[in-house]
Each structure stands twice: as structure tokens, then as C-alpha cells.
């Protein structure tokens, strides 16, 4: 897998994905999106990875948006195609059957904010800044921002952020529920790794099934959603990890031998 703009590192059960175009503040061009797609495909196949951290190279930016130089001269057909590419890759990330934590050091603007919203959990440094500045460029958000932002922060706040193009600081992003946690910059990666390790120490199969139930349930009515819950709950009882988790409890053992099956 030849990658120029995305790094993939694995350590134990944790994978770290880094968008690596620091000269362009990690802006997402087509090449980078396609490489991210390859990396997600790799993670889908790797049963040893239980949690993923997604970050941007350097401290200044997580991702400063879709690549404006690439978009500038697009026609309508090419613009639609670019949006479809971004949406396809981000949806694949959102549906990855492993939890993904976005570790956001600096700018998460436009496509960068959208990328973070396709992750399950967002941890930001105190220096991080968020926004959907697309309307100031004469475009709409195109990698999920018109849909995911309202689902995360509510309709009114999402409309305000998109219509005004406002850039908000990490503490405001935390206040409106856009990020889960804000930490000093120097603690960002440790915090993300600590959370990834905590997640990886739960039964991986139960974490995966929880993600599937939550994501699928958000798209449908509550009765259908609860039937998904009953389905995955039932499925847990066919797993080694359910037997191990409950046996460990009964035996008052803190060490658990989860096997992701
Ligand atoms: N696309 C392409 N290049 C970008 C970029 C982007 N989104 N953001 C930054 N860069 C490049 C700059 O052009 C600059 O390159 P050069 O050194 O070759 O000139 C380099 O990264 C450093 O950026 P700045 O000199 O601008 O750094 P700054 O500290 O002065 O400003 C910033 C930082 C406020 C983040 C500013 O770079 C900026 O406003 N970037 C664009 C943010 C934006 O509008 N994002 C939304 C894009 S549209 C989108 O994402 C659509 C969608 O939903 C799919």
C-alpha cells in the first residue's frame, strides 16, 4: 500500500491514522481521500485492531478542510463527484466496525470538521478551532456537514455555524457537544491513547456491536432501533467474550481474557 499523504501505524490493538500534508495544513485533496479509503479498507480486515485514533500531522491543524486549490476550477459535475468521493470515504469510516477517536490539535475546518464528525469520539486540544466556513467560499459543506453537524449539536446551532461560517474555539465546541473532551495540547495524544486503550480493554465484539446498534438506530424510528438493540444483545450471548466477561465477574477476577470472538 503506497501512501503519500496518510500514515498508518499499529501498536498492539490500537491503530493510528495521520493525515499527513502539513504544508497544506492537511487539506484533503482527492489523492488523500483515496489513500484514507485504502487505510480504512486495511483496518476493516485487521481483527487485531480494537480502536483507532485519527489525527493530523503537526500541531497547527487537524485538517483545514477540503483542498481549495483543487476545488477552485471544478465544474458542477466535478464538484458533485468530489463530494461523493468525500462522502463515500467518510461514510466508510463512520461504518468501520471499530471505534474511531479523532485527536484534534488545531484547525478542524470545513472537511476537517466533517472528518472529525465521521469519527465516534472527538478529543480536542485547547488550541483547536472548529467551523464550517464553506458559505464564505461560495459553497455548501460537501463532506457531510449539512447532515452530521445538526445530528451532533442540534438544528439551530448547526444552522448558525453553517450560515455564519463562524470559527469556534475548543471550549465553545465542548459547550455545544461537538467535542467530548478538551485537554492541553501536550496531553492530547496521551489522552487519546488512554481512551483507546480503555476501549480496547473492553470486549471488542461488544464494543463493535454497540457501535453498529447506535449508528443504525440513529437512522430509524425508536421501535426499529430497539429491535436492533435486542438483536445485538442476543448476539453477544453467542460469543466467547460474553462467557469470559460474566465468568470473570462471578469469579471476582479483574483480569479478563477477551478474544474478540
Ligand atoms: N485547501 C488548500 N490549501 C490550504 C487549505 C485548504 N483548505 N487550508 C490551508 N491551506 C494551505 C494554504 O494555502 C497555505 O499554503 P501556502 O503556504 O502554499 O500558501 C498553507 O496551507 C498554510 O496556510 P495559511 O498560510 O493560510 O495559514 P494561516 O495560519 O494564515 O491560516 C487557516 C490558517 C485560517 C486555517 C487558513 O489556512 C484557512 O482559512 N484555510 C482554509 C479553511 C477553509 O476554508 N476550509 C474549508 C474548505 S472548503 C471545504 O472543506 C468543503 C467541503 O466541505 C468539502
UniProtKB/TrEMBL annotation:
Lineage of the organism: Bacteria, Bacillati, Bacillota, Clostridia, Eubacteriales
Keywords: Lyase
PROSITE patterns (UniProt xref): ENOYL_COA_HYDRATASE
Pathway where this protein functions: Lipid metabolism; butanoate metabolism
Family according to the record: Belongs to the enoyl-CoA hydratase/isomerase family.
Transmembrane segments: none
Family matches, as InterPro entries: ClpP/crotonase-like_dom_sf, Enoyl-CoA_hyd/isom_CS, Enoyl-CoA_hydra/iso, Enoyl-CoA_hydra_C
Species of provenance: Clostridium amylolyticum
Full protein name: short-chain-enoyl-CoA hydratase
Quaternary structure (record): Homotetramer.
Superkingdom classification of source: Bacteria
Enzyme class: lyase
EC number per UniProt: 4.2.1.150
Gene Ontology MF terms: 3-hydroxyacyl-CoA dehydratase activity
SUPFAM superfamilies noted in UniProt: ClpP/crotonase (SSF52096)
One Pfam family matching this protein: ECH_1
GO BP term, example: fatty acid beta-oxidation
Catalyzed reactions per annotation: a short-chain (3S)-3-hydroxyacyl-CoA = a short-chain (2E)-enoyl-CoA + H2O
